Amino acid sequence: MTKQLMRGSHVIGEAATRAGCRFYAGYPITPQNELPEYMSERFAKLEGATFIQAESELAAINMVMGASMAGVRAMTSSSSPGISLKQEGISYMAGMELPAVVVNIMRGGPGLGNIAPTQQDYFQATRGGGHGGYRTIVLAPYSGQELVTLTMKAFDLADVYRTPVILLGDGLMGQMMEPVTFPDPIDPDTLPQKDWRLDGARDRDSRLIASLHLDPAQMEQHNWKLARKYAAICERETKRESYLLDDAVLAVVAFGTAARIAKGAVNRVRKAGLRAGLFRPITLWPFPEKELRALTRTIKHVLVFEMNFGQMVEDVRISVGEQATVHFHGRPGGIISTPHEIADAITKLFYRYKLDN
Fold first, then answer.
1. Minimal CA–CA distance to 121: which of 111, 131, 246?
2. Do the beta carbons of residue 164 and residue 158 sit within 8 Å?
3. In terms of DSSP bridges, do strands 50-53 and 164-170 run parallel, antiparallel, or are they unpaired?
4. What is the pTM of this model?
5. Residue in 53, 49, 59 with CA at minimum distance from that of residue 35
6. Which of 140, 190, 180, 159 has the alpha carbon at shortest distance from 14?
7. From CA 170, how far away is CA 9, in angstroms rounded?
8. Which tens digit of pLDDT belongs to each residue from 97-107?
9. What is the pLDDT of residues 263-272, one digit of tens each?
10. Domains recognised in the chain with CATH numbers
11. CB 253 within 8 A of CB 305
């Protein structure tokens, strides 16, 4: 396969198209505008594809909801405050068990924030984000090539589990250009048929897709059904990368862009003889809790590095319990830490706790 040098946002758009996505609705907001821009041009040349620049984020997510009901692979994208506006629709889709892919290229803080690289939306993404106690699968790519694989994977997971899937990136990932390769496109007509879709009751009984269950017993039954689905996702779909952890005495835990920086830091301290490694969650939900906990048999110190003020720390602490000490290093405003900075933080922990003695 031929490598192509592409911007991250364009990579997502091309990967989505090759995954069989044929409906996109969105609304402009930086730093993800290059994605709808790409989709508008790409879909204009693709038979059977629909691109809509909606009048608002609310309209966009509801258009995606309708397309998903009709059985089409559908996607929307936005950035932090825009994703907040979509949360009601995402909750409805979770309740109606409708598949879709939602891309969030994060901004830098509460309110409008800024457009610099940040990871401020970890809580929003991993806790469902809206009302009703639902969960969404959350994928955290850290390279251009993973934008390809995880975007395409997101559509498959959405269809298999009939759930919205979040692809979580940041401004650096969306703008950065890297060489990538794409698999051959999927023909949407070859995808498994969705026997629940609403396509006109001409030769069958009518169907209803709804999230309203006025009977409490029926509502409870539906919520338990969702809970069983979430448990199955946790059992089957957890993914992570382990890097230089076989002999490590300290693990750095980081995701997305932060993990790329952390990997460079780990390589630096390894050259100095310090036995550090990297644990990178690829699925932020379900979080790779069992895999991280297993490391505490030999690793007693964990350094969480995030481009925020410590949101993933909660999941790391739940995972390791009392078996390891959890430390944190982060920058919450969009300033990008360097590998040297993280290597310095790792080195200080080694000397403070005499970890190689």
1. 111
2. yes
3. unpaired
4. 0.97
5. 53
6. 180
7. 10
8. 999 999 999 99
9. 999 999 999 9
10. 4-188+211-236 (3.40.50.970), 241-353 (3.40.50.920)
11. yes
